[in-house]
Amino acid sequence: MTLLHKTTRDYLIASVSILIFTGFTLFVILQKAVSDEMNEQLELQADQIFESIRLGNHVNAPLIKIEKVTNNTSLGLIFGDSMVYDRVQKEIEEYHYLKETQRIGDSRYHVTVMSSHIGWDNYYLTIFFIFLLTAILLTLSGILINYYSNKKILKPFFENLKNVQAFSVSSPHSLQLHDSAITEFKELNFTLKDLTERSKKEYLALREFTENASHEIQIPLSIIQSKLDRMSQLEITEQMASYITQAKSGVNRLSKMNKSLLLLAKLDNQLFTEQHEIVFNDVLDSHLRNMEDLFLAKNINLIETLNKTIIHSHQYLIDILISNFLSNALKYTSTNGTVKISLKNNILMISNTGSPLGFPDEYIFDRFTKNPENTSSTGLGLAIIKEICVLNRWTLTYHFQNGWHTFIIVLKQTS
After folding, report:
1. Do 262 and 293 belong together in one domain?
2. Cα 23 from Cα 129, distance rounded (Å)
3. Longest Cα pair distance anywhere in the chain, in angstroms?
4. Which of 3, 69, 77, 153 could be disulfide-bonded to 100 (CB atoms 3.0-4.6 Å)?
């Protein structure tokens, strides 16, 4: 629910609640006022009748009843409502009455005076419809005024929200925000600008440190690798040769991990922003031809279905993605196994036979997650694939079923 819709909904609920309460209160007050007025009129009419009786005048009027009662009848007055058949209207109507007994001379007279509710019922109905129409007009006009007023007030906020969502700390430009006359929005803009500037400085410092650290680590690794290569060419014992081989393997693994971590850092910081049109099936086929001998060496059966597929991405990242996928398939497919590669309808599916994972499926794309059977792996290859898919907004899934490991990438970019 948007902010505008929520404020409009809250205003509508509050307005309707207030109007219902106001209408009910108005009805109660009006009903009491009408009842008091009718009682006052009936009392006045009864007083006039008793005065006429005292003066000896004859009283004969409709809706008036005069009775001479016994002396033991109690004095006082009573108000009430009664249903009376109206001969003119030929229907039963509701009447409000006053019954009063007074002593006049040595006699007691009981007078009943009635007044019809007909007129007041019409007044109630008229007032109700006027109030209802006024309430509807006030509510609708209030909703419209509230909606468009809030929309105008919040316009800079929504524009700034879009700018913040599109902002990246890797961008060379500063965050641009629209000015607002509202104090709270001014404070928010100041806070956002300060926060983004500090984030950019921290990002640049971290990126510089990562690149420098990777470079400084790679130089001694290259030196160690070179020295080990030279040592392996000398006349050494078999045991020494074994130590050198193990050392070279460790250096190679450390060098590969250093490069992978640097690549992940660049992916996290979205440094690969350039995109070009790439014929994906041609790139995939080229990698397959380069690795064909490696698959043949393990007697792995390659089944390929490559349809023409054009994407927009960074060429280097696509090479890394395909290389990591094929290397993973080659490494974890047993001898005499099968690898299926399908590319059609913008969907890349790579399946290979192999043993089940030694860990839950949901961890397969996590960094440093690797098969316990392969200690030489860095555990970063599939994590790099995941980050490349995230950067390109591709959907990446994995499942294992009936001895087949299957990776699926939906290459179509989603909004």
Report:
1. no
2. 11
3. 154
4. 77
